[in-house]
Specification:
It holds the Pfam family PAS. One of its GO terms (molecular function) is diguanylate cyclase activity. Keywords: Nucleotidyltransferase, Transferase. It catalyses: 2 GTP = 3',3'-c-di-GMP + 2 diphosphate. With 322 residues, this protein is an alpha+beta fold. The chain folds into 2 domains: 141 residues, 2-Layer Sandwich (Beta-Lactamase), CATH 3.30.450.20; 165 residues, Alpha-Beta Plaits, CATH 3.30.70. Helix content is 46%, strand content 22%. The protein has 11 helices and 13 strands. A 6-stranded mixed sheet has the order 7-8-6-11-12-13, sandwiched between helices. A 5-stranded antiparallel sheet has the order 2-1-5-4-3. It has a two-stranded antiparallel sheet with strand order 9-10. Strand 1 and strand 2 form a beta hairpin. It starts with a helix and ends with a strand.
Length: 322
């Protein structure tokens, strides 16, 4: 009677293994497949009869063999469970994702538990892999991270131009000014605005004005270095902090930018729009006690560019230059 009960219990156990919604795989010491449940059949497209006694490493070349065998041998040697999660490695076996709710993922994200299986004499020969489909969890987390990154982007950048917004740009300027104070690194500020912008808006409309701002911003973004900070200071006014740059170097940059904008042709509706910019340039120096004084110096230079007829560069404390 007890033998019949044991056989019955074994049948139930096998039925459970086949029915549960996780992958169950048993491997011998040579990584040959001994157990392959229906979850594995359904997602791999390979029936148990086709994979039985064959090496899992040969059947699935996408497995990182060095990484996987290290995990399995650690479980065998220590006799304890070993876990892998999708955030460390998205999957063990590349199965397609067929869940419509998580259609943003083309593969199944997986967590894996590796269990050492002991024999009656306490030796560890086989291991059991339990493979969990965690695609819902993974996609939700990835979408949340992407949304947070987008919110962060919006918090730091101007929506129209993609340049740094004024608040974040000023925090970068403050940080760079502190760096100059500690290490005496040179840094220069270029402030410019688009000449006669109100007249352009009044003539062609605000959408045309927005397109001019976008195009000038894109041109500016393409000319600055990764270490520089370009921001929209307000309306049609822009500011660029040039790190590790002397006043002379900033003047050369400003003149190149002025000429590039002057050559820029902006197609809008049936019009081909052109514009120019006026620029003021200032460099951090020892008598400045805070970053607002650098902004003030560059802004005064910009004002002198406008007073002198616009479409020109003026250096702080110097005459205007074309």
């Amino acid at each position: 009677m007890s033998t019949l009960l044991d056989v019955s219990e074994l049948h139930w156990l096998l039925d459970i293994v086949q029915s549960i919604d996780v992958g169950v795989v048993v491997l011998d010491r040579e990584y040959r497949i001994q157990v392959w449940n229906s979850f594995m059949e359904n997602h791999s497209g390979r029936p148990a009869s086709q994979v039985s006694q064959r090496s899992m490493l040969e059947l699935f070349p996408e497995i990182d063999q060095a990484w996987f065998t290290s995990k399995v041998e650690t479980a065998r040697m220590l006799g304890t469970r070993v876990f892998t999660i999708w955030e460390q490695r998205p999957y063990l076996l590349r199965f397609s994702n067929y869940q419509p709710i998580t259609g943003l993922a083309d593969h199944m994200y997986q967590n894996v538990t590796i269990l050492p299986l002991r024999t009656v004499n306490a030796s560890t020969g086989h291991v059991c892999l339990i493979i969990y489909d965690v695609t819902n969890v993974a996609v939700n987390k990835l979408q949340l991270e992407a949304a947070n990154a987008q919110l962060q982007q919006l918090a730091l950048h101007d929506g129209l131009t993609g340049l740094l917004n004024r608040r974040h740009w000023e925090s970068c300027l403050e940080r760079e000014f502190s760096r100059h104070t500690r290490y005496n690194n040179p840094a220069s500020l270029v402030i410019f605005d688009i000449d006669h912008f109100k007249q352009l808006n009044d003539t062609y409309g605000h959408q045309a004005g927005d397109e001019v701002i976008r195009q000038v911003a894109a041109l500016t973004r393409g000319m600055v270095r990764e270490t520089d900070y370009a921001g929209r200071y307000g309306g049609e006014e822009f500011a660029i902090l040039l790190t590790d740059t002397s006043l002379e170097g900033a003047a050369l940059f400003a003149e190149r930018l002025r000429q590039a904008v002057e050559r820029l042709e902006i197609a809008y509706d049936k019009y081909l729009l052109r514009c120019s910019i006026s620029l003021g340039v200032a460099c951090i120096h020892g008598s400045m006690t805070g970053y607002p004084l650098l902004i003030e110096a560059a802004d005064k230079a910009l004002y002198r560019s406008k007073q002198a007829g616009r479409n020109r560069v003026t250096l702080s404390g110097a005459a205007t230059a074309h």
